[in-house]
């Protein structure tokens, strides 16, 4: 992560970058209460700003949306990984490849996807890896003397056992999550504090990264908005799909759909498109927080984006009775709903 402009990060990060304390209006207080209030409520230093902001600029002299635009630009610059961080990540990926080849042979493929592949990674972002073992869900052969349970011989369990045996001293966290839509092995490297999510025989990840790179080239504002909104969700522990949150792919599709919708409105009403990042962020929150009808509408980003009623494909978007949740068509597989795992989306919406 780029070096911060201040060393005292503890003072701002725990407040989530905003001070929510507001004193009572002075008109409603007696003279003695005013004196007492002044003693209790600390004076807010107008120059005590987050470390990504330019402290030489007087924010009172700039339009709020322009100021927010500049803050987003500075925030992205601060959050961008440095070359040393990339080297640490690439080293860890290579070490995982070595383990995979020792377990499954050279025919096994290790592919990186997600934010590591698209470059949309925060300093705390996981490395997403899919291992194609060529064995699918079939059990691997074992010696007759060994009495493994059937689940132990799956690629996921073999990989988790290998880490448990030979990597345990270098890991601060290790978990095999099997009872989920996409089983994972999650672990964290102790030295670099980098977390890795490993799935098996799930070919959809790498094509999703390729698709997102296409959108990034077509929509330059997608990158800074993704950085800000990923951090916004991560700060609230709402960024993990397996716990009902919003994952990176889903978030990026939501941003793409919003930008497509905005362009359609500008075209239909013959308005000039404004690419102020502050304005875009505010409109994004308004669109998904207030305007969008989650009960009736499905989002699709195919064919430059469109909306359609859930009733047109009830078997996909209304089959579990949760009509108030987000319905988001997977552009790589229109028969699947990207929003289905996010059962806490209404909590996300209220943020």
From TrEMBL:
Pfam families: MTPAP-like_central, PAP_assoc. GO terms for cellular component: nucleolus; TRAMP complex. InterPro entries: MTPAP-like_central, NT_sf, PAP_assoc, Trf4-like. Residues 276-335 form the PAP-associated domain. GO terms for molecular function: metal ion binding; mRNA binding; poly(A) RNA polymerase activity. Residues 68-216 form the Poly(A) RNA polymerase mitochondrial-like central palm domain. The keyword Nucleotide-binding does not apply. GO terms for biological process: polyadenylation-dependent ncRNA catabolic process; RNA 3'-end processing. Its EC number is 2.7.7.19. CDD domains: NT_PAP_TUTase. Keywords: Magnesium, Metal-binding, Nucleotidyltransferase, Transferase. This is Non-canonical poly(A) RNA polymerase PAPD5/7. It comes from Fistulifera solaris.
């Amino acid at each position: 992560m780029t070096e911060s402009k201040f060393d005292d990060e503890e003072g701002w990060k725990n407040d989530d970058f905003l001070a929510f304390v507001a004193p009572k209006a002075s008109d409603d207080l007696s003279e003695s209460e005013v004196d007492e209030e002044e003693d209790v409520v600390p004076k807010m230093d107008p120059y005590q700003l987050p470390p990504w902001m330019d402290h030489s600029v007087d924010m009172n002299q700039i339009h709020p949306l322009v100021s927010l635009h500049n803050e987003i630009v500075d925030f992205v610059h601060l959050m961008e990984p440095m070359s040393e961080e990339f080297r640490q990540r690439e080293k860890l990926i290579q070490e995982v490849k070595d383990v995979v080849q020792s377990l499954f042979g050279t025919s096994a493929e290790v592919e990186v996807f997600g934010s590591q592949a698209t470059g949309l990674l925060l300093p705390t972002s996981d490395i997403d890896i899919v291992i194609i073992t060529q064995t699918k869900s079939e059990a691997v052969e074992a010696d007759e003397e060994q009495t493994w349970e059937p689940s132990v011989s799956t690629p996921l369990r073999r990989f988790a056992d290998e880490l448990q045996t030979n990597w345990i001293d270098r890991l601060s966290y290790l978990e095999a999550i099997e009872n989920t839509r996409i089983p994972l092995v999650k672990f964290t490297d102790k030295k670099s504090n980098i977390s890795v999510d490993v799935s098996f025989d799930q070919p959809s990840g790498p094509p999703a990264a390729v698709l997102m790179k296409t959108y990034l080239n077509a929509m330059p504002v997608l990158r800074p908005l993704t950085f800000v909104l990923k951090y916004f969700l991560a700060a609230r522990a709402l960024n993990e799909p397996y716990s009902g949150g919003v994952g990176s792919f889903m978030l990026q599709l939501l941003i793409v759909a919003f930008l497509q919708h905005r362009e359609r409105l500008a075209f239909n009403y013959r308005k000039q498109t404004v690419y102020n990042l502050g304005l875009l962020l505010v409109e994004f929150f308004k669109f998904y927080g207030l305007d969008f009808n989650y009960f009736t509408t499905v989002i699709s980003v195919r064919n430059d984006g469109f909306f359609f009623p859930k009733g047109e494909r009830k078997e996909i978007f209304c089959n579990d009775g949760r009509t108030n949740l987000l319905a988001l068509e997977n552009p790589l597989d229109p028969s699947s709903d990207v929003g289905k795992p996010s059962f806490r989306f209404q909590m996300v919406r209220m943020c």
